Structure formats: structure tokens, C-alpha cells
Amino acid sequence: MSISAVMPTYARTDVMFDHGEGAWLYTADGRRFLDFGAGVAVTALGHAHPYLVDVLKSQAEKLWHCSNLYRVPGQEKLAARLVDNSFADTAFFCNSGAEAMECALKIARRYHQAQGAKEKYRVITARGAFHGRTLATISAGGQEKHLDGFAPKVDGFDQVAFGNLNEARAAITAQTAAVVVEPVQGEGGIIPADAQYLKGLRAMADEFRLLLIFDEVQTGMGRTGKLFAHEWAGVTPDVMALAKGLGGGFPIGACLATERAAKDMKPGTHGSTFGGNPLATAVANAVLDVMLKPGFLAHVNAMAAVLHARLDAIARKHDRVFQEARGQGLMLGLKCKVPNGDVVARLFANGLLAVAAGDNVVRLVPPLIIGETEIDAATAIIDLAAGQLAATL
Questions:
Q1: Residue ranges of E strands in the chain
Q2: Is the whole-model pTM more than 0.90?
Q3: Which is deepest, 113, 177, 248, 274, by most CB within 10 Å?
């Protein structure tokens, strides 16, 4: 048999991690890596956070699963806290960002069609976006590398240029139900949306009676220095998808919505067997306990300013390797002049984990609990790796 027992859908780096602590990961043979990938922006509070570990252990000794046929106290608590700290009135829980986006797309169709507008199902999305790996969400993202081999593309999505309000307005038809955007494109290359662009989308959605959906799967939960990235622009969506940092490493997703948007999501219209189970919601509530403490987001912003400044300096110093540093909060990227895969590999060889992104960018999304000690170590490795790469040019 030539295929591996684990389906070979990933181009994995040949390393196995045994345990982690804070921003560090360790192999069984004692090698140590500074984790500035955070499981692709997931382990927001670092590895083996003592409080999260205690909460998970405590819940595991009581109840793992009971299904959504019954009330789940931790789910009700988490929903209320997310509602109290956001624009939303209600929350649906699932297991991943793609599932959260699927819920958001269903809400958009249901919202219009329950009012008799059966023709409204199309959604305007941005080129370069990433919304998940389901058939619908790869079609929403529209990237050929994700669509290749999975034809036919799911109908209902119209891609326009990210940041271009005129193109978005021109794409509206009688069939348009919603517009979806990431406040910062992650997989697309760590590209922040301009505040005026997000405000313009809000005004456009109101003018044409569309739902505005923000995909905050990667940008949400403190990643940009506010609990949700759209807060920087002073704009609120009708629907928002969350996941990644929400569980600090435990799988959980959420779709938040206003009452107006979700009023027709009645029993039977959507569901999840595992979504919002007692284990996941216990951990997510623990994550919120930490993130909502006074000073937490101030720390994120302070460390983000330090890291961004250091990356700017490195990009200027190694201008044959890097074009620029960009991003928002602790969602940063280095635009490369050499293949970003080469940079990621060189960083790995020197003990730093990073993640490749689109537009030839190296993504740096460390745990939000990092301090200057970790920033010093990471930027020293980036400086060293860039020098090594420059010597080969």
C-alpha cells in the first residue's frame, strides 16, 4: 500500500512535538522551538496554560458530551458572555471556523428567504480571502489552489477586489443576500482592511438591505489588540464567525449574530452534534476569563508595537530578503523577496516556528501572552536567518 495511514493532505515538516509550555514547544529528544505560528493563530494563551489545563481537567471529570438535545450550562454562559462583549444578540456553537462560516452563510440565505425573497442567495466576497475548506467555503474564498480538483464550484459567490468599494457595489444584484470580509486577510497575506473600507461596506449593506458578515476566525479573540478586529474601525457586522483563539487550542467555533439577522433560525434550521459541548465551552469560558481581565489587551498592544518595530527594522536591514513588515496587533507578516517557504524553513532550522501565507508572506502570529524576552529571541532568529539567506543570493 503506497498511501500513508494518515491521509496525505498536508505537506508536514518532519518534526513531532512532545510537549509545550507558554510560547515554547519541545520534541521528545529535547529540541526546543519558539512558537510564533501558535498552531496557525490558535494557541492564543500559549501551550499548557495552567488555568486552562485545570479547567479542562475539572470538566473532564464531570461531563464530556450530552448533545444539543439538552441544555448545556457552559454553553449558555459562554453565549451570554460573548453577547455581552460584542455587537451580537445570539450565538451558535460549532467545532471549527469553516463550520462557523457555513452557519453565517445559512443565516444570510434564511434571513432573506424567510421574508419571501427566495431569489436572494448570492454573497459578495473578496479575492484573496480564505473562509475554510468545505465545498461552500472554498467557493466563497475563490482561490484556484483550493478549488482545483473539486469542481463544480458551489454557486452563489461573487469575488471582488479586497478594499475596493466600487467593485463591491457594482457586484450587487437582485440576488445578493450578503457581503463577507475578513478585517485582516490572513491566508491572503496579512493584509489589514482600511477602516473607511469597512465603514463603506457597512453603509453599502444598509443601503441595499444586505447582511454584513465578518470572518473573524483568525482576527478575533484579541489577535489584533481588541477582542474583535472590527472594533478598530468602529463598525459592527450583522453576523460574525469565530474559532481559532476562542478555545485556546481546544476545537470550538461560534457564529454570532444580531437578533434581526438570526430571528428566523428556528429549531431544525441548523445544528451540530458536538458543537458547544461541555469540554469545549468550559475551555472557551476559561479563555475569556483570561482575555477579559484588565490589562490583557493592553499587553497585546504593547507587545505588538515592540514586535512590529523590530520587524520593520529587520526588513530595512535585510532588504534583499524582505520587502516590508505589515499587519495589525500580533497578526504580523513579513513580505518576502525570496520564496517564503525558504524563509520558513530557515527559521525552523534556527528554532523558530512561523507559517507561510499568500502574497509570498511569512506569517508571525505568536501566543498573545508573549513578552519582550520571547520577542528578543524571535527577532534574533529572524535576523540570523535573513543574514544566512542573503549570503546565498
A1: 17-21, 24-27, 32-35, 90-94, 122-126, 157-160, 176-181, 184-185, 191-192, 211-215, 239-242, 253-257, 322-328, 331-336, 352-353, 355-357, 361-364
A2: yes
A3: 248
